[in-house]
Write a structure and sequence with these properties.
By secondary structure, this protein is an all-alpha fold. The chain has 15 helices and two strands. 67% of the residues lie in helices and 2% in strands. The structure holds 3-hydroxybutanoyl-coenzyme A.
Amino acid sequence: MYTQALNEKDPNAGKDKAEDPVLEARFQARVDEEMRIEPNDWMPAAYRRTLQRQIAQHAHSEVIGMQPEGNWLTRSPSLKRKAILLAKIQDEAGHGLYLYSAAETLGISREEMESQLLSGKARYSSIFNYPTLNWADMGAIGWLVDGAAIMNQIPLCRCSYGPYARAMVRVCKEESFHQRQGYDIMMQMAKGTPEQKAMAQDALNRTWWPSIMMFGPHDSDSSHSEQSMAWKIKRFSNDDLRQRFINATVPQAEYLGLTIPDPDLKFNEETGNWESGPIDWDEFKRVLAGNGPCNHQRLSTRQKAVAEGEWVRDAAAAHAAKVAARAANKEEAA
Ligand code: 3HC
């Protein structure tokens, strides 16, 4: 780990534990002045831990998030749709890589993060523990899940931690393409045959509430929000982003001629907000506790992929070592 090695040479290394009030005040002042915190800057241990947790959770979500869509790759309705879906899934893998790299700058290795995921101890977004039952789910995921992800992630481009903020710029550009491809599928299905429209409505019915839950618990129940906002990791609260997402999405559903599965959804003229009915937080807690419809399947598929890919990683490492040794021999001979 190059970055860890650099951190050890930092004259302030080790002071994390002491939480020197002068350093802490200087750190907070930099954050308040909208200056970026970089890997070798002093930072409170809790800031480092919060970022390691959040970025790792985010990276795991991108990686596990490939599975519900991978389920439909071989059954895409046309070659064009298959190529687009494949490109989207590859983008998600890339996002995972940028994010693991950003987390590594905080002194945690990718191996450690991966082993936390594989052991079932790490979180990833609750949304990825639901099944994808028909082709329209590919549309609903792009439209709603990537749509919610963009709403949450655009503010992260201004996060106080430099490597995370910079990684998010490209991620958001790609998520924006993903959202459009999802909406495009929904448009095709919604204006298709009655059966196709019914598939689109079914996908919306199943994806809506899990998408709303993606933003996390209500602000009053969010354990990390207050501190994360003071550190400018988060720029908006969970409820604020959820409300913005609902406001943006309701007219899109109307345009599709589909119905949002919330009988209590109503427009408040005074606030200009679409107010949602109650969210089933028991369901959210069940999924977080590992008891969602696909938690077991998603984790075991990942464990299997890592185990079965071991020989590929070993072969790639052996090849890289051979190439490096050959280059070193050539240099010596010259
Ligand atoms: N799924 C699983 N766990 C969740 C969650 C969700 N949707 N929302 C909140 N939680 C967990 C938190 O991780 C925390 O648990 P912990 O203390 O054990 O770690 C607990 O619930 C309390 O929630 P908080 O609101 O206090 O937690 P945060 O301040 O971390 O806020 C968050 C939660 C808004 C999801 C925040 O972590 C965040 O902004 N993360 C970065 C974005 C992200 O993770 N996106 C994943 C979306 S999927 C994606 O991008 C793939 C795309 O291609 C579709």
